[in-house]
TrEMBL record:
<dbReference type="InterPro" id="IPR050807">
    <property type="entry name" value="TransReg_Diox_bact_type"/>
</dbReference>
<dbReference type="InterPro" id="IPR013096">
    <property type="entry name" value="Cupin_2"/>
</dbReference>
<dbReference type="InterPro" id="IPR010982">
    <property type="entry name" value="Lambda_DNA-bd_dom_sf"/>
</dbReference>
<feature type="region of interest" description="Disordered">
    <location>
        <begin position="1"/>
        <end position="21"/>
    </location>
</feature>
<keyword id="KW-0238">DNA-binding</keyword>
<feature type="domain" description="HTH cro/C1-type">
    <location>
        <begin position="28"/>
        <end position="82"/>
    </location>
</feature>
<dbReference type="Pfam" id="PF07883">
    <property type="entry name" value="Cupin_2"/>
</dbReference>
<dbReference type="Pfam" id="PF01381">
    <property type="entry name" value="HTH_3"/>
</dbReference>
<dbReference type="InterPro" id="IPR011051">
    <property type="entry name" value="RmlC_Cupin_sf"/>
</dbReference>
<protein>
    <submittedName>
        <fullName>XRE family transcriptional regulator</fullName>
    </submittedName>
</protein>
<dbReference type="InterPro" id="IPR001387">
    <property type="entry name" value="Cro/C1-type_HTH"/>
</dbReference>
<dbReference type="InterPro" id="IPR014710">
    <property type="entry name" value="RmlC-like_jellyroll"/>
</dbReference>
Length: 204
């Protein structure tokens, strides 16, 4: 990993108005309150300053990826969408790179996600490779749903994609699908081995 950036980075007027920063702050604040944690308690558990957490919740600073990762672990937030931040940074030349197998891992009961190119925090697309551990749709407590649209490409194995409003879709290596991620969905492996897929989530 690269050295951990400083906790606070000032925002220009455009970034301050970015709605995705507001969504991120509300998501973190709601999760903190749901766990019954004060600002001080949550900040201490995530090893960040209380003022930093307050600014994140109120969309007054753009947190680094490392800080988001700590908050995700502290508040047990499982969706990769947490990593979405403003694409209105005004930066025109950027690049990120992930070597094979060196992505940032986030495991849930149903998926094992490997986040790709995660050093860039100001982006609208979130690419990640997922190993589909779920074997039956009943393993999902609720439909997965989040803001935006999503592209999925099956790398290996076979899956069934369950979505609201559509019949289950069986897919094999090389198959792909694009769908509204606000529509409830869940994916399960149906091959002998756990399937692997490439997902690209886009906030719109």
């Amino acid at each position: 990993m690269e050295p951990i950036p400083s906790e606070e980075t000032g925002l220009g007027p455009e970034a301050m108005e970015a709605p995705d920063g507001e969504v991120l702050g509300k998501m973190i604040r709601d999760a903190r309150k749901e766990k019954g944690l004060t600002l001080e308690e949550a900040a201490k558990a995530a090893a960040i300053g209380r003022s930093t957490l307050s600014k994140i919740e109120n969309n007054q600073t753009r947190p680094s990826f490392e800080i988001i990762r700590r908050l995700m672990q502290t508040l047990e937030l499982e969706t990769p969408q947490l990593f979405l931040q403003s694409g209105q940074s005004g930066v025109t030349g950027r690049r990120d790179f992930t070597r094979t197998g060196e992505g940032e891992h986030k495991e849930t009961t149903t998926y094992d996600h490997e986040l790709l190119c995660s050093d860039l925090t100001s982006k609208r697309m979130v690419p990640y490779i997922s190993t589909i551990k779920a074997r039956d749709v009943t393993e999902f407590d609720n439909w997965v749903r989040h803001q935006g649209e999503e592209f999925m490409f099956v790398l290996s194995g076979e899956v069934i994609l369950y979505t609201e409003h559509y019949r289950p879709l069986r897919m094999g290596p090389g198959d792909s699908v694009y769908y509204d991620s606000g529509m409830g969905h869940g994916c399960v492996s149906v091959s002998a081995e756990d399937a692997r897929v490439l997902w690209v989530s886009l906030e719109v």
